[in-house]
Specification:
heterotrimer; A mainly alpha (232); B mainly alpha (269); C alpha/beta (252); A: MetI-like fold; 9 helices; elongated; B: 269 residues; 12 helices
């Protein structure tokens, strides 16, 4: 069946990949890895968002703070995820804590930055209009600032999740013993390329699902309907 | 009190308007100050969080022993090689997919899927295929850089209004000439954005690869220091990473992006 | 004499949304002599832009023939210059470079083509704008650049697709007068598409009234040249002609 002799260790045929997948589901290891990875992503992201969005709004409202603190945020956004791994393992040991910390960082800074950006670019006359219609502090927050900054926030979440996902895989390769990254890395030690390919496909599918089923609908439901961003 | 603060702020604004670089550096001063205070107050044990002074000292000694410059050079060279190939392959591919509807339908889903897998996930299999050397790292970086470049190039190419192609045609331009005279300049702002993003991702991928399988470079420096338990060098590595990228991005890439977009009155996102 | 002959031109395409074949242009025939200024007038959707795009070669025609100087038209080319409603200037090139673009495509040397470009810019009174980028100009000025860019290439036919629709009313009147002045100097063959009846009568030697893809009538415009809005606004003959065209276009 193969057109030329390819070492199946190097280039696993599809059948063995599927086989490895079935085995992984049957003995539960694949589910375990996926579960661990997803849990870390979810926890890290949720905590990061809970902190980043309010902080971003608070900073964005004041032009003084936003222009002063922006360089700081941009600096830390650059250190996305992966660079935190060494120090994270030192501070939190190996495992859940360190990896979740990495994910938190990947999401937190970029979302804060984007939220700040989003709030500060809401035209002043929109805020004035709300004020002249009697909006109090809370109403201003929920009716003007949050919706107005939403495109940027969503973009920030999207980018942040991208960083987080990559940081997750990388961190799991060296800092833990369960998770998709770990699964890939350990398979390498045993030359089990079919497991590696399986892992890669799973990672790809998971991200696509995340993007299509979670992020894109949010974008569609909010900002596209409000006509703020056009889909190419 | 308030007028006093306003005066200080207004002074700052004028200062940074005149010398924008100050605006990039000034916010870090309170950060470093807070850091220094936190360390002095021993809120965290010194082994967990060393102070700025120790970091600077470590910087000095690493430079003196030549390790830091060598590692830095290694990292930069790898990034440059990978980025070069990513761009050299990415732009033509992007133009092809952008202009040719059949290529677009055929390749777009593939592009999206492979982008979803992400660079790092390729590391294990690349190590099996090519070992731990330069090829593996370069391939990872090329892979990482190519996607933002291609996707942004496609976006740029497709955003050129068809009237511009038609105008060139009605002025006697051949298809190849249109590529050079219309498509490339028209897509340039988006291409530059793609380059900027691509380099950003490439940089991160480089560090990740160096941490996981590296034998030299800044990423390796941090990983090695972790093994030795030396927090100072980890922090130093992170700071160097941040500063390096910050400088390259804010003072080289962002101005280029702004210049191409603004000069031609085109809007960049 | 490079004449443009259109015989039994038609365009039918499959409309995805309607699910059926749609005929945009039915059996249109038109003869344009060299040096004539012909305006095609009709309401939106009557097919005039489709006709122009077919003459320009941007879209293929499904029936009939288009002959320029006896030869059939196949695809776009420098013999048919186009002025677009959206100006379509190259934003990354200066005004001068834009106007010099056509000659550049023909392989004319830098010094020579810049000379040509300057000549045409002077014609449109745009000399000071030569070194500027299109984004720095107003809409009216940009379109003037668009006109001379097409003219500088000395096409056999100049096709103008509602070129003044994107500018404000006052600028439009100025541009129309400019256009007639330039036309009188260079005498290109012009096919001008518009929905504005007054504009059509003001500019043309001959007005072709179009509706739902069919030619209704051709009306010769015998107003003396040079024409200006001050003179024509109260002119009896002008009002007669515009009334006639308007009636045609609105009745169909």
């Amino acid at each position: 069946m193969p057109y030329f002799k390819v070492n199946p260790r190097l280039f696993p045929p599809l059948s063995s990949v599927v086989q490895a997948g079935i085995e992984g589901i049957e003995d539960g290891t694949l589910i375990q890895h996926i579960g661990a990875s997803l849990l870390r992503v979810v926890v890290g992201t949720v905590i990061a968002l809970l902190l980043a969005i309010p902080l971003g709004i608070a900073m964005g409202v004041s032009s003084v703070f936003s222009s002063f603190l922006t360089p700081l945020l941009r600096f830390f956004s650059v250190l996305a995820g992966i660079a935190w791994i060494p120090i994270a393992t030192l501070w939190f040991g190996y495992g859940f804590g360190a990896i979740t910390f990495v994910i938190f960082n990947a999401v937190f800074f970029i979302v804060t930055y984007n939220t700040l950006l989003g709030v500060s670019t809401i035209p002043l006359h929109v805020r004035n209009a709300a004020a002249s219609l009697g909006a109090g502090r809370w109403a201003m927050l929920t009716e003007v600032l949050l919706p107005g900054a939403l495109p940027n926030i969503v973009t920030g979440i999207r980018t942040g999740l991208g960083f987080a996902w990559r940081g997750l895989i990388a961190a799991e390769m060296i800092a833990t013993n369960v998770g998709l990254g770990y699964m890939l890395f350990v398979a390498r030690d045993f030359y089990k390329t079919e497991v590696i390919v399986l892992g890669m496909i799973v990672i790809g599918i998971l991200w696509l699902l995340l993007d299509r089923l979670l992020l894109a609908p949010i974008e569609r439901a909010t900002i596209e309907r409000w006509g703020m961003v056009q889909r190419a | 009190m308030r007028p006093f603060l306003l005066n200080i702020w207004s002074f700052y604004v004028r200062l940074t308007a005149r010398w924008p670089s100050i605006g990039s550096i000034a916010p870090f001063i309170p950060l470093v100050a807070v850091w220094w205070i936190v360390v002095e107050l021993q809120i965290f044990p010194r082994v967990f969080l060393p102070g700025p002074v120790e970091v600077v000292r470590s910087f000095g000694s690493l430079v003196y022993t030549g390790i830091l410059p060598e590692y830095l050079q290694d990292s930069m060279v790898r990034l440059a090689v990978g980025a070069f190939w990513g761009i050299a392959l990415g732009i033509p591919l992007g133009i092809l997919v952008g202009l040719n509807p059949r290529a677009h339908t055929a390749l777009w889903p593939l592009l999206l899927f492979f982008q979803a897998i992400g660079d790092i996930a390729w590391l294990p299999i690349l190590v099996i295929w090519f070992g731990y050397g330069l090829i593996t790292i370069t391939v990872v970086i090329v892979y990482t850089v190519i996607f933002p470049v291609v996707l942004n190039t496609v976006l740029g190419v497709r955003s050129i209004p068809i009237t511009m192609h038609r105008a060139a045609l009605s002025l006697g331009a051949s298809r190849t000439r249109i590529l050079w005279e219309v498509v490339l300049p028209g897509a340039l702002p988006n291409i530059v954005t793609g380059l900027r993003n691509g380099l950003g991702y490439g940089w991160r991928a480089l560090i990740a690869t160096e941490i996981i399988v590296g034998t030299s470079g800044i990423g390796f420096l941090m990983f090695d220091a972790r093994r030795a338990g030396s927090v100072v060098e980890i922090l130093l590595g992170m700071i160097i990473l941040g500063i390096l990228w910050y400088i390259v991005d804010s003072w080289v890439l962002a101005p280029i992006e702004r210049a191409t977009g603004q000069r031609w009155g085109l809007v960049t996102r | 004499m490079k004449n443009l002959t259109i015989r039994n031109l038609s365009k039918t395409y499959f409309d995805i949304y309607a699910g059926t074949n749609v005929t945009a242009v039915h059996d249109v025939s038109l003869d344009v002599q060299q040096g004539e200024f012909v305006c095609i007038v009709g309401p939106s959707g009557c097919g005039k832009t489709t006709i122009l795009n077919m003459i320009a070669g941007f879209i293929p025609h499904t029936g009939g023939e288009i002959l320029l100087d006896g030869r059939p038209v196949t695809g776009p080319g420098a013999d048919r210059g186009v002025v677009f409603q959206s100006f379509a200037l190259f934003p990354w090139r200066t005004v001068l470079e834009n106007v010099a673009f056509g000659p550049k495509m023909r392989g004319v040397g830098k010094a020579q083509r810049e000379k040509i470009a300057h000549e045409y810019l002077a014609l449109a009174k745009l000399t000071e704008a030569a070194g500027r980028y299109p984004a720095e100009l107003s809409g009216g000025m940009q379109q003037r650049v668009g006109v001379v860019r097409a003219l500088a290439n000395e096409p056999d036919v100049l096709l103008m697709d509602e070129p003044f629709a994107s500018v404000d009313a006052q600028t439009r009147m100025t541009l129309q007068e400019e256009l007639t002045r330039i036309w009188q100097e260079k005498r290109p063959t012009v096919i001008f598409i518009t929905h504005d009846v007054g504009e059509a009568v003001f500019l043309a030697n001959r007005v072709v009234a179009l509706s739902k893809g069919r030619v209704l009538e051709e009306i010769a415009v015998d107003l003396p040249r040079p024409r200006s809005w001050d003179a024509l606004n109260d002119d009896v003959r002008f009002k007669e002609l515009t009334g006639r065209v308007l009636q045609l276009v609105r009745s169909a």
